[in-house]
Specification:
The protein is of the alpha+beta class. The protein folds into two domains: 11-276, 2-methylcitrate dehydratase PrpD, CATH 1.10.4100; 284-408, 60s Ribosomal Protein L30, Chain: A. The protein is built from 21 helices and eight strands. The protein has helices at 11-22, 30-49, 54-66, 83-94, 111-124, 130-151, 154-157, 162-165, 167-178, 183-194, 209-229, 246-249, 287-299, 316-322, 331-336, 338-348, 364-370, 379-383, 421-432, 438-449, 458-464, and strands spanning 72-73, 80-81, 102-103, 275-276, 307-314, 373-377, 392-398, 403-408. Strand 7 (392-398) and strand 8 form a beta hairpin. Helix 1 runs antiparallel to helix 6 and helix 2 (30-49) packs across helix 6 (130-151). 56% of the residues are buried.
Length: 467
């Protein structure tokens, strides 16, 4: 077969569509339902905090000028706009301040792409009950991470922003299940979404557009489901096609991806359980290093002035993604740069929302201490594979000659040591309070925790709207 030919084999794309279309609430284990409610609550808190950031205000204003449709809510505001633009803005808000979830192995911020599309559908077509909403959400949370696992760490290493490229499949899956599309139409929804996949990692060096990638991905997935519902067709073998398919196009060689991972263990292994939460307001690749330093400080307290140097040994992805020399280029680059975040932790004892303000980006003191941090590639960690891409071995050298070392595999709130309901609610309430009154925050919290009892899931959108 020549390079520009393609078979019609779509066993994996169709396998995904069959899982999504046929998934019932009753099929989902209780622990998965408990977990996804907490994950979604966390994402909504992130979105509400993100409603009043510079980049989201720009999108709200400009899209509001272009689009006078009043169909769907812009969360944390009084604004109404069309469903696709709501998905774009709300997804940007969830991802707006590096606070949202991450599937470490699949390399995907899942809530930011699934929920904006799905909640828009509840507003467009009222009547979806809480159980149906949960089934649709789980369908979305299960698919994108599998595409990420299929692609492996090479995908992001070669410069694609995986949260944007993989996210279209999660968004399309959740939206297709929300619309109750059959298997054939779900195949087309995936095919329409997949051809819109895009996102370049160079956006991490200071551009606002990095914040928009998740919103654009959610919008693309929503388009996929809505267009397929209307009879529009997509690439039926979007994942498998030898020429121009997602996997072959977004990977340098065919031996870098594993198609069997796309449908592996459906109904037995739930990738929703692989999604971790963030308790630092920075990119997930930085969390293990911050945890390592925090744990070492518990053994022996030390601050920024006590440190001579810090060496972080990590995977190739960690080194490429966050280990670059810090240059002030805005909040995005600060939140994605490991040396800057380490300096921030050493100076402030925290790395949450209050630590990332414009006046701190070029703070000479932070930049001075960031110079003490170096990031080195550890072949042994890279060899462990994508499950361990955040693993680090951190060496701290103090001015008095003391050397300390700590290895951390996964950050606080990771899938193997997940946060408690109380911890998730505390973070949610702290973030949501920026946009909504306390009583409304509590009602939204309770609605999400008891989602299966909701008669109409459009209530979620109502509670997300500023009174």
């Amino acid at each position: 077969m020549s390079a520009h030919e393609s078979s019609n084999d779509n066993r994996y794309t169709r396998g995904i569509a069959e899982f999504v279309s046929k998934l019932r609430f009753e099929d989902i284990p209780a622990n998965v339902l408990t977990r996804i409610k907490l994950l979604m609550l966390d994402s909504l808190g992130c979105a509400l905090y993100g409603a009043d950031l510079e980049w989201t205000r720009i999108l709200q204003k400009r899209l509001g000028e272009l689009d006078t449709t009043k169909a769907c809510s812009v969360w944390g505001t009084t604004q109404k706009i069309s469903a696709p633009h709501a998905a774009l803005i709300n997804g940007t808000q969830v991802q707006g301040f590096e606070l949202d979830d991450v599937h470490r192995q699949g390399v995907l911020h899942v809530g930011a792409v699934v929920l904006p599309a799905l909640i828009s559908i509840t507003e467009m077509r009222p009547g979806m009950n809480g159980k149906e909403f949960l089934a649709a959400a789980v369908a979305g949370y299960e698919i994108g991470p599998r595409v990420g696992i299929c692609m492996g760490p090479e995908h992001i290493a070669q410069g694609w922003h995986s949260g944007a490229t993989l996210g279209v499949f999660s968004a399309a899956a959740g939206a297709a299940r929300g619309l109750k599309l059959d298997v054939d139409k779900t195949v087309h929804a995936l095919g329409i979404a997949g051809t819109q996949a895009a996102g370049l990692m160079a956006a991490q060096y200071g551009a606002m557009v990095k914040r928009m990638h998740a919103g654009r991905s959610s919008q693309s997935g929503l388009y996929g489901a809505l267009f397929a519902d209307a009879g529009f067709t997509g690439i039926v073998n979007v994942l498998e096609s030898e020429y121009g398919g997602f996997c072959t196009t977004f990977s340098r060689s065919t031996d870098r991806f594993k198609l069997e991972e796309l449908t592996k263990d459906f109904g037995t292994v739930w990738q929703t359980m692989g999604v971790a939460l963030k308790f630092y307001s920075c990119v997930g690749s930085n969390h293990t290093t911050l945890d390592a330093i925090r744990l070492m400080q518990q053994e022996r307290p030390f601050g920024a002035d006590d440190v001579k140097s810090i060496v972080v040994h990590g995977s190739q992805v960690t080194m490429d993604h966050v280990g670059w020399k810090y240059v002030p280029q805005g909040l995005t680059s600060a939140q994605l740069n490991l040396p800057y975040c380490v300096a921030t932790w050493l100076l402030d004892g925290d790395c949450f929302v209050n630590q990332f303000t414009e006046d701190k980006v070029a703070d000479p003191l932070r930049m001075k201490h960031a110079e003490k941090v170096s990031v080195k590639h550890d072949d042994a960690i890279t060899a462990k594979g994508s499950k361990f891409r955040h693993m680090v071995r951190v060496e701290v050298f103090l001015n008095d000659g003391t050397r300390m070392e700590r290895t951390v595999e996964a950050g606080r709130g990771n899938e193997n040591n997940f946060a408690s309901e109380a911890e998730v609610c505390e973070k949610f309430e702290k973030l949501a309070a920026k946009a909504l009154a306390k009583a409304q925050v509590e009602k939204l919290r309770d609605a999400m925790l008891k989602l299966e009892t909701l008669k109409d899931a459009s209530e979620i959108a109502r509670l997300l709207t500023k009174a």
